[in-house]
Structure formats: structure tokens, C-alpha cells
Amino acid sequence: MNKTIVALDFSTKDEVLDFLKQFDEPIYVKIGMELTYACGLDIVKEVKEMGHHIFLDLKLHDIPNTVKGGMKNLAKLGVEIVNLHCAGGIAMMKAAIEGLEEGSVGGKRPLCIGVTQLTSTSKEAMNDELGIPGEVIDCVKLYAKNAKTAGLDGVVCSVHEAKAIHEVCGPDFLTVTPGIRLADDSKDDQKRVATPAFAKEEGCDHIVVGRSITKSANPKETYYQIEEMMK
Ligand SMILES: O=c1ccn([C@@H]2O[C@H](COP(=O)(O)O)[C@@H](O)[C@H]2O)c(=O)[nH]1
């Protein structure tokens, strides 16, 4: 299975097709809110029909009953991974798994992973704006433990927390890590960033890469260079 999940953060179907036509084998892609809100869930079906593996990144966060219903319908799409915000709590996460099980196709539900703290959140923002005291790592570890208790398959975290999460939740608990930059000093909206090489060192299961690939002069070459770094 590919280690790199490419974030298809585009606003039109044409951009998606232009991007994907470079690849002559299935890759792992992430479809998030930008693309879904532009093209609807039909784009998920189309990309799936092209043979690509899909992480549907809609980050659900609502009351348990609503998340259960939402997940039940997302499960019917037959994607590989869906997600939610761990901040919704254990009852919400348990409800999500129930919904996925009810909606699953062929008895196999999508994997469900929880966003711990967004990789765009710094310690200062977490403390002062979100009102969560302490270190990011402690909050991320607590949310990961809650996700495991609720029956989730893993979490979204930064590379810097992946090793600690595997220690606390076990080696099979998935760590999916965005905030990947090819050089450590290139920061934008992302705050907790790391290189693919460091992600490999820290044992991340998958890295999520958007702009470093999609805005590269040669996206296909950059994708395969990153895949090589993760081997
Ligand atoms: O904590 C999170 C959760 C999700 N993301 C998503 O990953 C990609 C990253 O894109 P880049 O262009 O490589 O920064 C994007 O789709 C985010 O929505 C995240 O960055 N951090």
C-alpha cells in the first residue's frame, strides 16, 4: 500500500482529472471539503471508479446521533478511510463506528481515524485560543487514547506525535500525518511540520501531502521521490 496520500485540494473536476491522468497506477488520494463542496460526492465515485484509494477527509464533528447518520451514508460510498474530530468526544466517536458498521458495503466498513489537533495549531493557539492548557503532545495523546477506546482505527496527528501515539495505543493504531514539507523551514498555515524522511524515522503509517506535490513543477516526479523517501 502506498505510504503517501495526495491531498486533492482542487475546486474543479478538470483539475482533478488533469492531475490524476499523470499516474498510470492507482494511488492513495485524499478528498476533502474544498473538492467535495465544489463537486459534491459524485467526485468520490468518479475517482474511485478510476481505481484510486480514497481517504474522504470531511472531519465530522457533531452530536453522536448526527455523526452516526452521516457516517452511515459515507460508508455506502465504499471509500477506504473516513474521519472525524476527536474533540467531539468518545460517545460521538462510538456512534460514528456504529454508523459505519450499519452502512458498510460487503461487511467491510471504512477505516475511521480521528483528528487530534490540526497540524496548523501551535501550542500558543491551543492554549490561548482553544483554551486547552499544557503541551500539544499531551492533548494529542489523550485524544488518541479516547479514539482507541471508542473503537477507531487510528488518528491524524503531526509527525512529531506519531511515535508517542504508537507507544500509547500500539503499533497497529494508524498514524496519518499531514503537515509534510520538503524542507523543514518552509512553513505557511501549517505549524507542526516535518519532512518525509523524518516521518519515516518516526514510524508514521501514512503521510498526507498536498501543495508540495500538487503545486510542484513536476507533480508525478515529486510524488515518486516522496514515496521513495518513505520506503
Ligand atoms: O491536522 C490536519 C488535518 C488535515 N490536514 C489536511 O491535509 C492536507 C495538507 O495539505 P498541504 O497542502 O500539504 O498543507 C490538507 O488537505 C488539509 O486539509 C492537515 O493539513 N492537517
TrEMBL record:
UniProt keyword annotation of GTP-binding present: no
A Pfam family that the UniProt record links to this protein: OMPdecase
Catalytic activity: orotidine 5'-phosphate + H(+) = UMP + CO2
GO molecular function, one term: orotidine-5'-phosphate decarboxylase activity
Residue ranges of domain Orotidine 5'-phosphate decarboxylase in the record: 3-226
NCBIfam families per record: PRK00230.1, pyrF
Pathway(s): Pyrimidine metabolism; UMP biosynthesis via de novo pathway; UMP from orotate: step 2/2
Gene: pyrF
Sequence similarity: Belongs to the OMP decarboxylase family. Type 1 subfamily.
Keywords: Decarboxylase, Lyase, Pyrimidine biosynthesis
Subunit relationships: Homodimer.
UniProt cross-references to PANTHER family, sorted A to Z: OROTIDINE 5'-PHOSPHATE DECARBOXYLASE (PTHR32119:SF2)
Protein name: Orotidine 5'-phosphate decarboxylase
Any one of the GO CC terms: cytosol
Function recorded in the entry: Catalyzes the decarboxylation of orotidine 5'-monophosphate (OMP) to uridine 5'-monophosphate (UMP).
InterPro entries membership: Aldolase_TIM, OMPdecase, OMPdecase_AS, OMPdecase_bac, OMPdeCOase_dom, RibuloseP-bd_barrel
DNA damage is among the record's keywords: no
